[in-house]
Fold each of these.
Amino acid sequence: MTQTLYTESEVKSVVAGLAAAIAADSSERKILLLGLLKGCQPFLADLCRELSRYQLSLAVEYLQVSSYVGTASSGQVKISQTLPESLMRGCDVIVVDDIFDTGLTLKSVVTHLREKGAERVKTCVLLRKEGSSRVVMEPDYCGAVIPDAFIVGYGLDYNEQYRELPYIKVLGEEDRK
Ligand code: IMP
Ligand code: MG
């Protein structure tokens, strides 16, 4: 049976909470939101909309990153391009991803950005899976902690399907086609 984990309106209030937390921590510096494609898309768009309520200096960039095959992390994180140091200079970079599972993706991206000269890097995820981390790192901003199940919707996919759902659900047996 399909199990909805977060309805559309629940997702909206989680995102609003994250925007408030980011705004509360913001300094005079420009914030560069760096979305990890493709899963970040609806989340990053809604996060930007929520952040527009605050008087912030904001820029948005993307990195294409992948590591998943089906429902499991391959353990190998591929970062398809890099971000010029000039875009990050003077900014508080906030890496935005849909979910923190093993943590390998965020850890690799943060390490990569530091090597490329980023001064201040933070991380923001909509969701984090309980007890699945394989790295010594915590996201700076986390919307909610969920049980260790494979979920889809709101940008999260199963073999490129279900990203379009406006809510988040646990992937059911009947969805694995
Ligand atoms: P990590 O590197 O294991 O932390 O996984 C992060 C990435 O794996 C996320 O950006 C997602 O793209 C993907 N991922 C992890 N768990 C799920 C899930 O339950 N559903 C869909 N994608 C997931
Ligand atoms: Mg992803």
Amino acid sequence: MAEVLKKELLLEGLNCSKCLEDIKNKLNLKDYNLIIDYKTMNISFTVNEGSEYDNLIKYINNVLNNHEHTIKIHEKSLEREEGKTLVIGKLSCSNCAAKIESKVRNISGVKKAEIDFVNSKLNIVAASKADLDRVLIETKKIVKSIEPGAHVHEEHNGSHDHHHHHGDAGIVKKTVTTLVLAAIPLLLAIFLNLDNFVELGLFLVSYLIVGRSVITKALRSISRGDFFDENTLMMIATIGAFFIGEYHEAIAVMAFYLVGEMFQDLAVDKSRKSISELMDIKSDYANVLEGEKIIKLASADVLVGSLVIVKPGEKIPLDGIVYEGEAHIDTSSITGESIPRFVKVGSEVLSGFINKDKVLVIKTTKLYSDSTVSKIIELVENASSRKAPTENFITKFARVYTPIVVLTAFILAVLPPIILKQEFSIWIYRALSFLVVSCPCALVISVPLGFYGGIGFASRNGVLVKGGNYLEAFKNSEEIIFDKTGTLTSGKFKIAKINTTAIDQAKLLEFAAYAEYYSIHPIAAAIKESYQKDIDIARIKKYQEFSGLGISAIIDDVNILIGNQSLMEDNKIDFIEAKQAGTILYIAIDNKFVGSIVIVDEIKAEAKGVISKLKNLGVNKITMITGDKESVASEVANELRIDEFYSEVLPHQKVEILENKVKNSNKKIVFVGDGINDAPVLAISDIGISMGEAGSDAAIEASDIVIMNDNLMKIVDARQIARKTSRVVWQNIAFALFVKISVLIFAALGFINMWIAVFADVGVSLIAILNATRILKMKKTG
Ligand code: ADP
Ligand code: MG
């Protein structure tokens, strides 16, 4: 078998996105897994090495030569960056996560290193494959040195198992045992009337038992040269307390810290679990029909074209079509749509849908790795690498927080006693209290958790968000631009009237249907649907689509032009303007006008409500942009109370308009389109939202937020989830800072003792973690 190659081509000199669009239309996307990246003008595809590859290159060259541009194709160097994901089991200390990340970034040959604390994963991209192996070995060493208990292994492709379920019972048992063991010498020391020296020894034993894990971790960090580690500071603080004679205090602080850590671990685990439950949309196994037998296969091993039996209550494991049976299916975990959908033989079904009532046989159309669930899970997991500005800010803040607190503590221990001529021990004690609150733990844990929760919750409701940055930016955006056809309107055109001059209506419709045969535009779908008869493709001799204008085709031996007014004007055709309301398609045969077809589209039922809701949610301006004629556009704009509209805009002009808006606004510009003919605009806007049928590859590829069904109400949901996420995140930040600053002030003034400081500090972390999970409890709008 020939090796399958993934190639990337760079098109130099190609600077019009329309040309790229044309290339895409002419090449068959499906055959080669063709992906076009409008930002970099890259085309990538998967093809068999050898003659198939050479032919494809020739073919692309042919297409390109038909354009008037001089375009050179470069093959991108095959030495590609290589990435790997490491799963770090039992990553419980968030501050360590940040340390691991920055250490790994410093390894030579590392292009990118992003830690995903929520999933306990580390994504590494190395400059080349050769580098990768070395980088991985060094990374594992770093992880071991910072988090000795962690278990590192490489993620296997296709499997998204979560490996971090390290029994809750374990940590509770361990903590309780430690506390009981430490209590024995402590109680002996307190209740027996012992010699001072023996008493001190017992306190020391108790302290060492309760502080064992902190002390071992601290010594390890010190040997690494890291003195700002939370464990180190905790150790210094408690040993300090010991020295000034506060034995009980030292032991109590360690004990509280230990219990706090335990609760924090449990809380993080719990919220991780509830998020991954949200994402529990895949089915690991498929019951595959082979002959008479049913065999259970891992979903990842099921071939395209297999027959899979899905019983009531089961999830559909792979994308496919219904082969046998009919049933109601629950699509909510993928589309967010709460009303069950009825499917019968021939209906398309996506993985993740749940069969509600009767047995179905599905014929798979995709491999597991290409199926919708895999894509969604991958997307949501990768989303954590695109961090929101708030998250980046917290990371930076965390880096300076500890040194500042420690420095202040030092000053506090030294200056006031000298200036005020007081005893050192008072001020040292206060300074030591500073050290126990010097970890920014509450922030570094709860903020990423909050964003991850928001993204996970959104995905469960049929809104895929590709990064925390988009979630945060969407919340702040003030202008939303909508495409008309297929976005604000249903895109399901109906023929309202056929006006003819030279030929009869049936003949006109026939030519129109033939000309539109290859087009994927909603207009084409309407024409083909009303024609109904079979199409003999041999009669289509030539076909060319002009985006935003219409189509030119040779059918049999006549030249057909079908499209809008501009298309007629461009070709200098004398036509009779149709006055009816609706979108008008003018038709010319051999450059002579023969008639027009009036088609009408319906505004989506929810559109008006959505626009007014968005305005209530802080969107100042709603704009519409369409290739359709002015009269249709203004009617829709009036009906929906849209603030501004652009009509008769060609696709490349849409790009220009968006570019200008993005350039001239300091707020983020949102564009909502259908993802099929709007890809360049989606890519260029700050936040591209595509509305489309679930699972459309083009839509998922080109946009930043994907709405998994056609319902505009999901945009309102997305905005609300974004607002809620941001509110919770900021609550946590404000609360944590408030408590910490208060503790610091009170400690400096001597109003609280050290164990209260620890208690407050671990309490904040806990509350912040629990608060972050509140995002998942938002009520669903369905
Ligand atoms: P919108 O911006 O509303 O999504 P388009 O840019 O896709 O609209 O199309 C703009 C106009 O171009 C349509 O209203 C129609 O008049 C014409 N047009 C586009 N594609 C076709 C087609 N396949 N057949 C006929 N006319 C077309
Ligand atoms: Mg459109």
